[in-house]
Automatic annotation (TrEMBL):
This is Peroxiredoxin. It holds the Pfam family AhpC-TSA. Residues 1-26 form the signal peptide. The lineage of its organism: Bacteria, Pseudomonadati, Pseudomonadota, Gammaproteobacteria, Lysobacterales. It comes from the Bacteria. Residues 256-415 form the Thioredoxin domain. It comes from Pseudoxanthomonas taiwanensis J19. GO terms for molecular function: antioxidant activity; oxidoreductase activity. Gene3D superfamilies: Glutaredoxin (3.40.30.10). PROSITE patterns: THIOREDOXIN_2. Keywords: Signal.
Amino acid sequence: MRHAYRSILRHGLALLLALCAAHALAGTVAPAEGLWRGEFTVNGEALPFNFELAGLEGAQPRLVLLNGSRRDEFEVEKLAGGGIRAVMNTYDAALEATVEEGSGGKRLVGHYRDLVPKRNGANDLPFTAEHGQAWRFVPPERDAGSAANLDGKWAILNRDRSAGPNQVALLRQEGTRLTGVFMTVVGDTRELEGVVQGDRFWLSHFSGPSPVLVRGTIEDGQIQGAISFGIYNVARFEGHRSDEVELPDPYRLTYLKDGRRSIDFSFPDLEGRPVSLRDDKYRGKVVIVEVIGTWCPNCTDQTRFLAPWFRENRQRGVEAIAVAFEQEDSFEYFQQRLRKFRDFFDIRYDIVHGGVADKKLATEKLQGLNYMAAFPTTIVIDRRGEVREIYTGFTGPVTGGYYEEYVARFNALMDELLAEPDPYAATAGQ
């Protein structure tokens, strides 16, 4: 009798909890699907971004970040209470948000979470978002028109000595809408989107890694302003239109030390096995060494190019190795991040652990280089094991002709090197 009573009590309690949970969920308001306008506050400035929520009622809910013509898609996890969470694919960060009470699913309040363990959320950014807003900096009814047209190529000069190298900006203006990209010797900002209003302009970008904000003024055909990279740094600049301006040659920034023809290293792969250029796997092959970090957006763009290229060409006598320098000097962290990176991009070549993300350390570990100037850096090695080319940084598709020139030169070099005879073929059977 006592056992039966306990059983009834236990089942009754379970039913009560289920009913309470159902009641709570019934009162939950989910975010509305469609277009949203989000806004970070970075260094005291509003940094807007646009995104779309779709499929929230289905099996594959997703968030799409919008930047000009660029689309970056992320899976969405629905949280209790109507919240959502979107991990930024291969970046160790996530967008988390809840519906503001009383908004009917039309307003979100959340954070951009930094998931790197050692930082413990030190770089988190709060944000709010409004549903149904497709504008970025200025709503259509408040568009005041532009006093200048910024269309063209610009020489960007840094006014802060610590701000790094000078840049080139490629801008396109249609009415008051402004898009473009800022390029440096180490890569580019990805596609920026913004507006010109009177003698002022704004641009922003957010596609998963740290958000970017550019703001400035226009006077006598020249511009000046500041560019912010997340919460890390702000650099002041001035610029003038120039069709002739170019960045330093990316093929000459990193080179071999005097007397060297090759590089050397030995790093563990994802399973802990040592990988070296001296391994039989690479003997007589053309080898592409890709120095990257999963935290680096230009590295991600470079991998987005190389991974499919390698899948299509691997039978031609080419191998590749990605040497990853990560945000934590931990092999376990490397395994976690790079397995996800490998699967996301369907990488079919070796990935090895270089260490913590530090240019000086990378220079020391990649024996033979004068200096690792940037992540990413691509090193091409011929069938004899000699370095034939080193390319610093990466200019993505948004840079137009610069990207097309890189792809054409890369393919021409690979065709040339793969056409060379394997110097070890005669002894392969001995």
